[in-house]
Amino acid sequence: MAAEPVTLSETLIPSGVEPDLDHIRARNARSVWHPMAHPGVHQANPPRIITGAEGVYIEDDEGHRVIDAVGGIWNVNLGYSCTPIKQAIAQQLDVLPFYSAFKGTTSTRLIELADRLVGVLEPEGMRRAFFTSGGSDSVETALRLTRQFWKLAGQPGKVKFFSFKKGYHGTHFGGASVNGNDRFRKSYEPLLPGCIQLPFPSLYNNPFGIDDIDELTDVCLRQIEQEINYQGADSIAAFIAEPVLGAGGIQVPPPSLWPALRTLCDKYDILLIADEVVTGFGRTGSWFGARAWGVKPDMMCFAKAITSGYFPFGALMLNERIESAFMESGPEGAIGHGYTYSGHPVGCAAALATLDVTFSQDLPGNASARGEQLMDSLKVLQSEHEMIGDVRGKGLMVGIELVADRESKTPLDPQLGEALADRVFAAGAMIRVTGNIIIMSPPLVITESEIDSLTQALAVGFAGA
Predict the structure, then answer these.
(1) CA distances from 429 to 197, 392, 435, 441 (A)
(2) Which H or E run includes 363?
(3) Domains and CATH numbers, the chain
(4) Max alpha carbon distance in the chain (Å)?
(5) Looking at 88-138, which runs of residues are DSSP E strands?
(6) Which of 261, 280, 418, 423 lies most in the core, judged by the most C-beta atoms within 10 Å?
(7) Tally of CB atoms within 10 A around 457
(8) Is pTM beyond 0.90 here?
(9) pLDDT above 60 (res 218)
(10) Which residues contact 49 (CB under 8 A, 6 or more apart)?
(11) Burial of 421 per CB tally in 10 Å (0-12, 13-18, 19+)
């Protein structure tokens, strides 16, 4: 879409001058390209300007105060008023605002957080932490260290990665290569070779036309095993998957999938990587997504809620098998990978405070209870509105699939979904629409009455359709 020409000198914000809101609005989308958006569309239809937040509410530049049912972007688990995190950040800035974790130096908060995470993840058998700046970094680190692990293990031919169709694993070249959605792939190909996407057992609108979840799961598992045999197990490094598919439309796996996936990986000596960037730290109603399915991965990727969004931060956790291969190696075990902000002391302080609050308030338990409440309300809405084809979720990961025709499951025009989101916002809630799917991931501190308010806003939005 062609954008209107702009005279730069007329709209630039002068240096050192505090701009007023009118000036800010005039500059909206003029000097920045936003993630996951067409720059021309954003310039023609500038994004909402969020000016403040408190609790589970956000406020825009026009004074609209609404429930943030997106939770930032999956990450603001503790809401926007978590004093312990703010205090931890401020105190750490006073003591040590930054120092490198590269060879030869570390910080007290980094050591403390690594030990804390190893303790919290003892049920999964995690033994080491590698810190990153975010989710895409954590996935990239997992892929790179997987390749290095197999070289150390004397099997350098194990280089391929399996993942699920509809899965999402970030935006680096490695993560984009294992993504299962062409939206994040096509414009950037060719990507990393040897990345194979396989069908996920999603009962609603699955390509096999199967109506029984156990039968569908068996079909998908057979296809995975057939592909392992076709590619050759001696060429496959790892299977990476989200415990619940997030950006792919809130696809909740059947209970048998993850245990069966672990069994397959063990059978063929393939590492299992749990991408917990969204599901970690209580989002699903369990502390971790893999824990919800009773599975011990070889690696676990974290970010987002690890600091509740208050600081860009991430981590990759590794089990004893990975640890031993590196610790028992020669010079080839040196890790030639890292980020300037790996183990940033302010991020570590924020993460430690986040863990304290999450434990003390039992936020996974609240996510489970409030998720059930929200799902019950959405089922009622589904019975009243034909455009709601499916409602699904786990904990406070909830999706609504919008259809033009319920019988044929024809996806609703995305523009109609965006119009629905605008009506819901006007009624008091921010939701996210991806294609024809509403995705909701409100803060885990959300209360029963706030879930009621969110449901009421949704009801108003659907009533206006």
Answers:
(1) 35, 19, 19, 12
(2) helix 363-384
(3) 20-81+363-463 (3.90.1150.10), 96-360 (3.40.640.10)
(4) 66
(5) 126-132
(6) 280
(7) 22
(8) yes
(9) yes
(10) 24, 25, 28, 60, 61
(11) middle
